[in-house]
Structure formats: structure tokens, C-alpha cells
Amino acid sequence: MVMGRFRWLKLAVLFSLLAVCGGRELRATHKDPLPFYNRTLAKILVEYASAVYMTDLTELFTWTCSRCNDMTKGFEIIELIVDIQHCLQGFVGVAQDLNAIVIAFRGTQEHSLQNWIEDLFWKQLDLNYPGMPDAMVHHGFYSAYHNTTLRPAVLDAVKKARQLYGDIGIMVTGHSMGGAMASFCALDLAVNHGARIIQLMTFGQPRIGNSDFASYLSKHVPNTIRIVNDHDIVPHLPPYYSHFPKKTYTHFAREVWLFDIGLGSLVYTVEKVCDGSGEDPTCSRSVAGNSISDHLKYFDVNLKGDSWGSCRMVMDSHTLSYGRTDLNGNIILSRNPATSVLKLNTQTAVL
Ligand SMILES: *[C@@H]1O[C@H](CO)[C@@H](O)[C@H](O)[C@H]1NC(C)=O
Ligand SMILES: *[C@@H]1O[C@H](CO)[C@@H](O)[C@H](O)[C@H]1NC(C)=O
Questions:
Q1: For the domain bounded by 32-350, which CATH number is listed?
Q2: pLDDT in tens, 189-239
Q3: What residue stretches are annotated with the Fungal lipase-type domain (predicted)?
Q4: Is 275 part of the annotated catalytic residue set?
């Protein structure tokens, strides 16, 4: 009897909390409809952001890895890039079901995640973003995309895909440091390569530039969603100093903050669509960023390598035949997407 009443009370509390949060979300949507947050798409893209961490290049290239299924089934990689020199990894491919090119970047695989996070406190805004007066970014984040094997390989693969599929949409994603790289990539595609339909969606990314840079990115890549899980520490870094709005690191919009509400066994995750400032004080900034475990799992999907602190990779000799390496030993596996389209066409013809 007592037990039953207590349960009922828990439910009542939960639902009133839900009502409050739901109301807020609706109002935000009415005031400012763009960019549209699509939860289904978030759950698909987080799987790509997770798969790019895999170390077995053969399984990744053939899309048969343990994380290469579920909502990403049928994905075809055009180019898989491993920058051994800087311990970075990314891929470009075509997802027929999304009718889009998907580009994903891996987060840091440095020796210790703790050290990487501690270093984030001290990153300076030390580089002028080219072509944009007053936009400042951190040189290291910028270079990881702009000054490694990744950029030329990504651009090359996008070009190949567009020759074949026309001007289809491009979705760029990544987790943590990979989210930072995804942001620079999306902006590069929009500003320098005439890509028109770009969706940028990142998970647990750090701040990468000042407020001028944030407005620049929002202007050129309006469909941008930056997902933050609960108390994830990384999106709180490098720190935001509200007393120096022009000088401090500032996130771009639009944050979607995931947090749990409920009591005991009745826990429900709210996905709160935040305001257009990028630094909505009622979203993740309303709590302390003090969790590493919240950083490593989004939507119940693991976002870390199969082993830490290694730039290890595994590959069989057949896969190697698709590869080329540069002077620094970096590896690019690529495949002409035309072959798979031919296969598709043949199948259609037979049917
Ligand atoms: C959300 O994204 C999924 C996957 O791309 C798509 O099928 C669905 O139509 C989208 N929903 C809306 C409301 O746009
Ligand atoms: C790009 O990388 C090279 C070698 O890794 C380095 O010497 C050069 O200073 C870098 N340039 C920038 C702008 O970071």
C-alpha cells in the first residue's frame, strides 16, 4: 500500500518534470526554428562517430566491423585515412539510405585521455582563421584537419562521390577532438568547395574558437548541432570566461544537451534544444563539467577506441592493395565508388 503510493508519487514528479522540459523545448522551436534537430539522425551519426575509432582497417574498409551495423548498414567507404604521424583517423563514404556523403573523424587516441583533457585547460586562441578578420582558433585543432593527410584525402573523396552522385548532401561528424576536426571540415567544404547542403553534428566536442569564429561558422554551416551528454567535461573546455566575451573561447550554436531526470528506476533522458547563442546558460553550462564517463558514451553508444593509448592498426594484405602511403608512412585506402554503383545497377536490371 505504502509502496504503491510512493511509486505513484515518483511518476507524478517525473511527469511534471517532463512537462516543464517539453514546454521549454517547444517554445525554443517556435521562436527560432533553425537548425532543426533530428533525433533519428543523431542516433545514426553517433554510430558513424563510434565506428571510426575501430583499429581493424580491413573490417572498417569493408564495413564489417562490430560497430558497422545497426543503423549504418550498407554504408560504402570511399576513402579511409590513417595519419600515423599525428595519430588521426577519418573516413568518407556514401550512405544510400541518407542519400548523403558521410564524413567521420576519430577523437584523440593519445596515451592518456586524462592528460589530453588537462591540456585543454591551457589551449590558447593563437591562430587567425584565414579569410575572416577577428576570428581566432586554436592552432592545434585547426592543424589536425588543415595540416595533415586528412584534408586533401577528404576533399578528394568528396569530389569523387559528387562526380558520381551529383550534389547530394554532406554530413560531417566526430566525437571529442574528432568533433573539432569535423567542424573545421564542414566550414572548409562550405567556404572553399561550394558545398551547399551540409549537416554538421558533433558529440562532446571542445570549444575551438572565439565568438567571431562561432558566428562565422553558424553563418556558413547553419545546420549545425553540437550534442553534449550530461556532465561531459570536454565541452566545458577550454574554459569560457563570460567577463571577456570577445576574447574567450565560445561555442557555436546549436547545443543539444542530454540529461537524465527521474527517480530511482524511472530515469528518462531529456534532449534539450538550446538557444542560438552557443553558450546557453540553461544547458550544459548550468552544471559542472566533471565527468569523463559521460564523455565516452552518447545515446548508449561507445565513443572510444578498442584499446587506449595506441595508434595501432590492423589490416590484411588484400586491403593493403587498396592503399597508398606517403613519405611519412600515412595510409590512405581508397576505392572507386563507381564499381559499387555498377553493381547496384546490375541488380536493379536483374530484378
Ligand atoms: C530525420 O532523419 C531521418 C534519417 O535521415 C529521416 O529519415 C527523417 O525523415 C528525418 N525526420 C525529419 C522530420 O526530417
Ligand atoms: C604544418 O605541418 C608541418 C609539418 O608537420 C609543420 O612544419 C608546419 O609548421 C605546419 N604548419 C602549420 C601552419 O601549422
A1: 3.40.50.1820
A2: 999 998 989 999 999 999 999 999 999 999 999 999 999 999 999 999 999
A3: 102-240
A4: no
